[in-house]
Amino acid sequence: MNRLLKFITLLTFILVLQANLVFAEIKYIDAEGQYILGDNTTDTLVEAKNNARKDAIRNASEKIFVWVQSVTEVKNSSVSNDYIRIISANILSIQSATYKIEPLNNDAIKVICHISASADDSDIQNEITKAKNNTLTYKEDRVLLPNSDKLQKLADTWIQKHFFDNNPIEAKKLMSLKTQKNVSDAYALETAQRIRNSLGHLQEAKFEGWTQFSNTDQLIYHMRFSTRFAKLTLEFNKSTGELEHFWVTLN
């Protein structure tokens, strides 16, 4: 009898445990957006890229609209489709964004942005609560990488000093104090010389996109050297915004 009671108690515990397990569902989305930059607009290339990224986010949120709609129904939440569209955009976690520029007629260009993103259904309930409290707003602040202007200006200055001015010592001074301490001037000069020996002199550098990780942000540049093309990755500390590492890979 005691064995039977123990078995029933154990079985009950297992069933209760299983009933309380909640598995978050994560969706992964790839989407593209575009923006035409021509003579009839005063937008800069940076603004055009930002608009293309907004379009990519809209397209990504449309891709998960039906999924978010089904989750809200499961949660027995009465939320309008307009709110569901906002929720769909807000729960997107954008992992990376890359840009491509295509020339068009009449000196216009098409800026294309490709994003890779994910969405976690555990974030939906918080957005539903905001919708019911009439405090739900579209998170436009995610459209640009936090401090993106600051990071890109630092990256451009570093590239100028390291590659165009051929002065890796001055470029090193733009990096974090930790990096400056760990990397000797001799090693910085040796690394720069190895790059020049392999690739030649830098002719052109174009910003391609960025990737966000939990502790770092990476800015990516396409580089045209005198002998071949390569990709430059600059890695920044997310909390301090300091440049900590860089590496060059062949395309």
Q: In angstroms, what is the radius of gyration? A: 25 Å
> How many helices does DSSP assign?
9
The CATH topology name of the largest domain reads Thiol Ester Dehydrase, Chain A
Calculate the terminal CA-CA distance, rounded to whole Å: 72 Å
Question: Any overview of this molecule?
Answer:
The protein is α+β, with helices and mostly antiparallel strands and 251 residues long. It folds into 2 domains: 117 residues, Thiol Ester Dehydrase, Chain A (Roll); 103 residues, Roll (Nuclear Transport Factor 2, Chain: A), CATH 3.10.450. The protein is 44% helix and 29% strand. It is built from 9 helices and 7 strands. It has a 7-stranded antiparallel sheet with strand order 1-3-2-4-5-6-7. Helix 2 packs across helix 4, helix 3 crosses helix 4 and helix 4 packs across helix 5. The longest helix is centred in the N-terminal third of the chain and has 19 residues. It is elongated. The termini are far apart. About 8% of the residues have low confidence.
